Amino acid sequence: MPLDSESLLRLHDRSLQAWSRGEPEPDGRAESLDALVLHVHHANYRIWKLEDEARRTDVPDAHIAEVKRQIDRWNQRRCDLVERIDDLVLGEPAPARRADAEQHSETIGMIVDRLSILALKIHYAAEYAARAATPELAAECERRHQVLIEQRADLLACLTRLLAGIRTGRRYFKAYRQFKAYNDPRLRTSR
Fold it and tell me: Which of 67, 71, 83, 174 is the most exposed place for a label (fewest CB within 10 A)?
């Protein structure tokens, strides 16, 4: 399995720094595992920005409604990409699963997605700490920043163990579909 936990973190952090400086966001098709991971991260970045926009109170409600629709579209894209990560990982030749193998409750794609969101939280917690209006607020933001770093390290360790378990046939996961109904007009209860 070509997914490497430390490379994943570097990709997340470097991408956020680049996008914050206004460097181009990813384009093209997400076919390889690295490209899929980057596109999931980009979708989370776009959702984060759109959610900030949706919290504005100085714009008409119609603007907020359009932003919410954009969030739905990006969220659907994110879910589709997470599923493609799982499909790609599950499509790789794997060692024979041992009879006593344990099923993991989360998929690789789900963990990659959670790590992406933690990278965003870490990035912005550091930003908030740096621009805090008071030393007390800066200290509070820095405490949050450190907790988020610990959470990401813990989740990264879980991913590393899962990947090792899959490689040895001791662990496995199943691909689950999100079945998001809010983007399917046939399933909406209100029009």
Answer: 174
Q: Rounded CA gap, 95 and 179, in Å?
A: 30
CA atoms within 13 Å, Cβ hemisphere of 130 = 6
Residues 47-64: tens digit of each pLDDT: 999 999 999 999 999 999
* Angle CA 169–173–177, to nearest 5: 155
User: What total number of domains does the chain contain?
Assistant: 1
pLDDT (mean) for 59-83: 95
In a domain? residue 166: yes
Q: Is 190 domain-assigned?
A: no
Strand residues in the chain grouped as ranges (E): 102-103, 171-172
Identify the residue whose tokens are 């599923």.
83
Its domain, for residue 59, covers 5-181
Quick one: angle between helices 61-91 and 33-54, nearest 10?
Answer: 160
Report d(CA 146, CA 41) in Å as an integer: 21
Taking the C-alpha atoms of residue 75 and residue 88, their distance in angstroms, rounded to an integer, is 20
